[in-house]
C-alpha cells in the first residue's frame, strides 16, 4: 500500500453474519493463523481486532507500508450530472467516476502516510528489515452516498458521504508472521456525526473530499495510537 493504512485494535463481533462477512476479507496468511490458534480477539476503538499474544511489540520500531487495495462496489454506471427527472437510488448508492476513484485512493493514502509519520515510536521506512512491521491495508466495498451533481444550482445535505470497510494486516516484514489483523466497516460522515438539522451545511465537492480526508486521518491516528500503546505494553 504505497500509501496506507492502518491498524488498530477492536471490540468483539457478536453477530454470526458479521463474522462470516469478516472472514471473507482475510488473506490466506490470516486465515491460517486463525485456524492454528495463533490469533486471539482483542479490544480497541476499532470494530474487530485479532492479535498474536506471543509477539513482543517492543522489539519493533519501524513501519514498512506494503501493498494497498481499493475495491468499489458495482452499483451501476457513474454519472457526473443529474436532471430533475433523475431516478435516485433507493439504497442511496451511486457509482463513482474513475477520476474520483483515483482521487479517493490518493487522499486516503496521503492521509495515512502523514499520520503514521507523526509517530515518535516508529519510523516509516521504504523497505523490509529487522525490527520492522509490514502494514498491508485495504479499503473494500466502498459505497458512495453522494448523488451526481444537478444541472443548475441545488443544495444537497448528506448524513454520510460513503460507507467503507477498512482492513489492516500487520506482519513481521522479514518472516511474514501475522502479528495482528484489524477490520472495521464505518460510514464516512460530515462533522457532527452525520446529523442533518437546521445547523447542517450543504455538501459539495470540497466538503465531501474534506470528509474523506478527515475519516482517513482519524483512522490512521487511531491506528498509530494503538500501535504505540501495544509497543509500550510489553
Describe the 3D structure.
There is one protein chain. This protein has 234 residues and is α/β, with parallel strands linked by helices. The protein has helices spanning 16-23, 28-35, 98-116, 205-233; strands at 40-41, 48-51, 62-72, 81-82, 123-125, 132-144, 149-150, 162-172, 178-188. The strands form 2 sheets. A 7-stranded mixed beta sheet has the order 1-2-9-8-6-3-5, sandwiched between helices. Strands 4-7 form a two-stranded parallel ribbon. Helix 3 packs parallel to helix 4 (205-233). The longest helix has 29 residues, at 205-233. The chain is elongated and about 60 Å long. Residues 1-22 have low confidence and may be disordered.
Strand content: 25-35%
Report how far the terminal alpha carbons are from each other. 28 Å
Low-confidence stretches: 1-22
Mean pLDDT across all residues, rounded?
Answer: 83
Let me know the number of strands: 9
| Sheet with the most strands: spatial strand order | 1-2-9-8-6-3-5
Shape: elongated
As a whole number of angstroms, the C-alpha radius of gyration is 19 Å
Topology:
Layout: H1 16-23, H2 28-35, E1 40-41, E2 48-51, E3 62-72, E4 81-82, H3 98-116, E5 123-125, E6 132-144, E7 149-150, E8 162-172, E9 178-188, H4 205-233
Parallel strand pairs: 3-5, 3-6, 4-7
Antiparallel strand pairs: 1-2, 2-9, 6-8, 8-9
Outline of this structure?
The chain contains four helices and nine strands, in the order ααββββαβββββα. By secondary structure, the chain is an alpha/beta fold.
